[in-house]
Amino acid sequence: MGREIRLISPSYVKAFGKRGKSDALDAEAICEAVQRPMLERRSIRTPMANWIRKLSEKKLFRLVSVALASKLARIVWVVSTRKEAYHPYAHLI
Fold first, then answer.
1. CA distance 7 to 50
2. Residues 32 and 57 in one domain
3. Do 8 and 31 fall within a single domain?
4. Are residues 52 and 29 in the same domain?
5. Is 32 helix (H, G, I), strand (E, B) or coil?
6. How many angstroms separate the first and last alpha carbons of the chain?
7. pLDDT per position as a tens digit, 13-31
8. What are the DSSP calls for 51-81, one per residue?
9. Do 38 and 6 fall within a single domain?
10. 59: domain range?
11. Do 35 and 68 reside in the same domain of the chain?
12. Which of 16, 44, 75, 80 would staple 49 via disulfide (CB 3.0–4.6 Å)?
């Protein structure tokens, strides 16, 4: 049920792009690139990505999407009210 999160190099996706520039064409190129077996797989090792991965193993995709949207909204609210830069990993240092 969980989703696999992958980083894809823009240069790799660009090879599958078609003429024109639109979100639909970009999405199609990304889907084409992801389905290719030669794609190098890298794991994402940020605390946020680990949180998403663990949550997606237990919960439905749509619930994880809502949880991520809520977390991002809270981050935006804190940054906008405190008027300071966001340092996501300051607590880890």
1. 14
2. no
3. yes
4. no
5. helix
6. 34
7. 666 666 767 777 777 777 7
8. HHHHHHHHS-HHHHHHHHHHHHHHHHHHHHH
9. yes
10. 47-92
11. no
12. 44
Contacts for 46 with CB less than 8 Å, ≥ 6 apart: 88, 89
Examine the domain organization and report whether 38 and 72 are in the same domain: no
What contacts 89, CB < 8 A, 6 or more positions away? 46, 47
Q: How many domains does the chain have?
A: 2
Residue that is written with structure tokens 């405190």 in the block: 82
Nearest to 9 by CA among 25, 30, 26: 30
Question: Closest by alpha carbon to 11, among 25, 30, 35, 28?
Answer: 30
User: pLDDT tens, 35-88?
Assistant: 766 656 566 677 888 888 888 888 888 898 899 899 889 888 888 898 878 777
Residues in the chain: 93
